[in-house]
Predict the structure.
Amino acid sequence: MNVPLSILDLAPVPSGSDTGAALRNSIDLARRAESHGYHRYWVAEHHFTDGVASAAPAVLIGLIAAATDRIRVGSGAVQVGHQTPLSIVESFGLLDAVFPGRIDLGLGRSGQRRTEAVAAAAAPRPAQRTSSTVVDGLLIPPPFDFTTIVASPRWAVQAGLQQQPGAESPDFAEVVDDIQALIGGTYARDGIDVHVTPGEGAKTELWVLGSSAGRSAQVAGERGLPFAANYHVSPATVLEAVNHYRSAFRPSAVLDRPYVLVSADVVVAETSEEARRLASPYGHWVYSIRSGRGAIPFPTPAEASASPLSPEQQALVQDRLDTQFVGTAEEVSRQLSVLQRVTGADELLVTTITHDHGDRVRSFELLASHWLA
């Protein structure tokens, strides 16, 4: 039997469309995902991007949960550098109060990573692996260096808008501990107990998301929380991330053994040729992110064909192109099986972006009919 299959949705904005249509598409897709048997439906958090509408996960989660009946709905992930633990717990406590037992709270460390990247950009850099490897059938490309993007002046300006003046992001472990204490009703400071309504006692499922063998994997493991590793964002480091999480894992009231979810970017169609055509704008979209501009509205295949990437641009996104699973449901399922086997994932999380909403719906439908049959 295959492991459970879930969806990560960025609420992509296609070229020629707008955010309202993108958000309505996400709600429609969630309804269909529920009917096809997907386990959970997560939405991402992205800011300052013309091509992604999921800027406020808690709001979008509420809209999706209200439009569905059973599927778990959550964040992949709330970026804790932009909010206080209190605001996160209150928002998700409110959602849990209305949709009890269906809400996932995935946490990511955005502000902390930005601070580290600024410091890393000014420090000598260790040599990086420059060639791809294949581990038991799974492609592991060379790592992409994010420090230049994260340390750019544009990112600094954007970061200033995401936090109060003078605010500093606390250590990620401290944030996770505070969130757990507020939900569990055990938070105290200076001899004063603090209780939060809504939020205390919420049955939200707490997750940590991470891309490397770093702080996120360590914190998730030490606290016995489930961990989501991003093959679709950072395929070069997915094995390091899950191995570090498992080595750090300590049993908790939540889990008695590690639980790993691994993401993948997929496009499925009736034929391999059609899937490749639908996926052809993906390189342009990834390049817009990695060049520092931010995700553009997702182009049509014709628009992508009319403006091909230069060799230098192609090189900047090749790792993501090589690790996107594109083909028929049978072909993509085989690739997902390899990903699951090599990472030991307990669950897979798939994300799909196409220009046409109908093609995206069909991709998830075809995959479910094969994987979840």
